[in-house]
Each structure stands twice: as structure tokens, then as C-alpha cells.
Design a protein that fits this description.
By secondary structure, the protein is an alpha/beta fold. It is about 40% helix and about 20% strand.
Length: about 240
Amino acid sequence: MSPIEQQRQSAIPAYKADFLKSCLSANILTFGSYTLKSGRQSPYFFNAGSFHNAKLLSAIATAYAHTIIDFLTAHPHIPRPQVLFGPAYKGIPLACGTLLKLGEIDEESWGEVSYSFNRKEKKDHGEGGGIVGGALRDKSVLVLDDVITAGTAMRETIEIVRREGGKVVGFVVAVDRMEKMPSQTDDDGIPRPSAMGQIRKEYGVPTASIVTLDDLIELLRGQGDEKDMERLQQYRTQYLASDRV
């Protein structure tokens, strides 16, 4: 690795760089042409469902744990989370694995915190209900998810937690794509906020991410294929959210 590459990587906290390297080595983060739910053609794709073995699950849980610690340090006014909530389905292993890692790092602070997730369909037998894990009533809830694009899932999660009597005190995602919310005329050139920015504005809920698109570009600038880097930059320019300028 050249001195220039080392300097670029040093600008990114070690846990972020390690997370991105794990994503790249396991093909969890790939480059090409991918059609997103919004209809946009993205030059990269992140698949959190591919963290399916012990080594990879540990890598993403470690990255989430350090992100949460930094997030709470930067926002001391936020109530201490009493529940980590993982929306079904991809959020479930994220919440469980991250809570385990946080307990390993600081058992005194995290040993009594619960994890919880929702059922897609409410259970009408046994314990019943639509929530598995720790109860949400009167609890401060930190939500973990993979990637947010349109914000629909974030709104649904906030409503689920509210119905159960809890309060969402923050959202933490793996990747912040930094792109504006989609519209029917998506290439209209009109500035729009990101989904995360809109959620912060509507609900007053702070958000954080393990990495951003800028972190990815910074890490790979001196390593990756120049064509891929150019496409990432072009995508960023075309869809950058107004709250990320």
C-alpha cells in the first residue's frame, strides 16, 4: 500500500475501514449495474443478507456496536437505549448480533438491554402478539436496519414501536447512500432531502450510519477500478441529497 493510500484510509476510523474491507472481500458490497426499488440504476449494491456466517456476522456486529457507541457519545441528550429493535427480516440478526457485541465491550452498560423484533403477521396462539423479545412499552428504542432509500420502512418501524408503547430514540443503518428521496420524475434535477434527513425533520429522531457513500469512495479511491470510482462519483453528483451538500 502506498503512503497516499495509507493517508486516505487513515481518514476513516479503523472500524469503518475494517467493515468496508469485509464487505468487499465477501462480495457483500459489489459494483456493476443494479436496479433499486426506486427504479434507479445504481453502480453499487449492498446486501446485508450475505452476513450469514460467524466471521461476517461478527464483523458487522462489531461495526454497528462501535457506531452506536460513537453515536451516543455525540448525542448525550438521547435517552440510553433500553431495547435494540431489528425490523423483520434483515434487521433481526443485526439487532441480536450487535447487542451481543455491545455486551462483550461493556457488560455494565449493555448487560440488561434487550433486543426485540416484529412479526410480519401477529401470532394468535401461545404468547401471541406481534413482537418477539423485549417488551417495548415505556422503553427507549434504538432501531437498527441495513440501508434506507425511500424511508417507508423507517416510518413503518416508528409506528410499530409507537403502537407498542415505546419511543424510538434513534436509527442506525449500515450504509447511508446519501441520495435524495425518489420521485415520479426522478431525473428532474430538483433538490430533495435524503430519507434519513426527512425522518430527522418529521419525527425529530437522530440517525447514524456505519459508513456513507463518501467513506466508500474515500477508501477505494486508490484501490478500486477507476471506472467504478468514476461511476460512484457520477451517481453521487446526480442523486446527492440536499441535506448532504
